[in-house]
Write a structure and sequence with these properties.
- Strand 5 and strand 6 form a beta hairpin.
- The protein has nine helices and six strands, in the order H-H-E-E-H-H-E-H-E-H-E-E-H-H-H.
- The N and C termini lie far apart (about 85 Å).
- The protein has a four-stranded mixed sheet. Strands 1-2 form a two-stranded antiparallel sheet.
- By secondary structure, the chain is α+β, with helices and mostly antiparallel strands.
- The longest helix has 21 residues.
């Protein structure tokens, strides 16, 4: 009986081989299908063992799966979610103009340093989610006029003092340490005041009045240099 079963399997395998001559996929199955017979013995009845059939995976399909996997491995975090990941135990909040290219260089530097400290909360005043009520009543126009920072106790600091406080929180207090002296602080504030007054013009952006009007109308510009929302 076992011999008949073996013969039937061999016959089936032969048929598979004949049919596989015109089909590469069936040839692949045939090449990986084997029968192994054990010698006949009175104490061991005839039997056969079939090895598993290997089903090759199309290389191109495998690469597509890998590409899809890699593409979705690191989803893009929306801006709102990123801001919500700010440290809860912050000591100072930095209000910054996210549309100012030069300002963002400094913001990104502080943000990178803050990864080791977790003491600064960054708030983009240009974000549609910005709320003056959550930032000591500082509206967009006021915050655009000069740098503002808010301490954890609600105290608002501006100009060079704001920079000094921020730098102190990420181990760079020595950069602005000299501005603790009033004569130097006044001079530094004067220099910063000039920058704050002309920074829109320097960075190639329209006057604050035009920006406010555009925001009020909800205007969306295709040209990034035409207006900033």
């Amino acid at each position: 009986m076992a011999f008949r079963a073996a013969a039937a399997v061999v016959s089936s395998a032969s048929a598979t081989f004949i049919g596989s001559q015109g089909n590469p996929s069936l040839q692949s199955i045939h090449n990986h299908f084997r029968l192994k017979f054990h010698p006949f013995s009175p104490n061991h009845p005839q039997r056969f063992i079939s090895f598993p059939i290997y089903q090759p995976v199309n290389a191109g399909f495998r690469c597509q799966i890998r590409a899809i996997s890699e593409a979705t491995a690191e989803p893009i975090i929306p801006k709102k979610e990123y801001e919500e990941q700010s440290p809860k135990n912050w000591k100072i909040k930095m209000l910054y103009d996210g549309d100012c290219p030069l300002c963002m260089r400094e913001v990104n530097m502080l943000r990178e340093r803050n990864k080791s400290y977790g003491t600064i909360k960054f708030v983009d005043i240009c974000s549609e989610n910005y709320s003056p009520d959550e930032n000591q009543g500082l509206d967009y126009k006021t915050a655009m006029g000069r740098i503002h920072a808010i301490l954890s106790d609600g105290t608002v600091v501006t100009d060079v003092e704001a920079f000094r406080r921020l730098y102190e929180q990420v181990g760079l207090g020595w950069v602005y340490a000299i501005t603790k002296y009033k004569p130097i602080a006044k001079l530094a504030d004067a220099v910063y005041g000039v920058w704050a007054k002309y920074r829109l013009q320097i960075t190639g952006r329209p006057p604050i009045e035009q920006i406010l009007e555009s925001r009020k109308k909800g205007e969306v510009c295709n040209d990034s240099n035409a207006c900033k929302m």
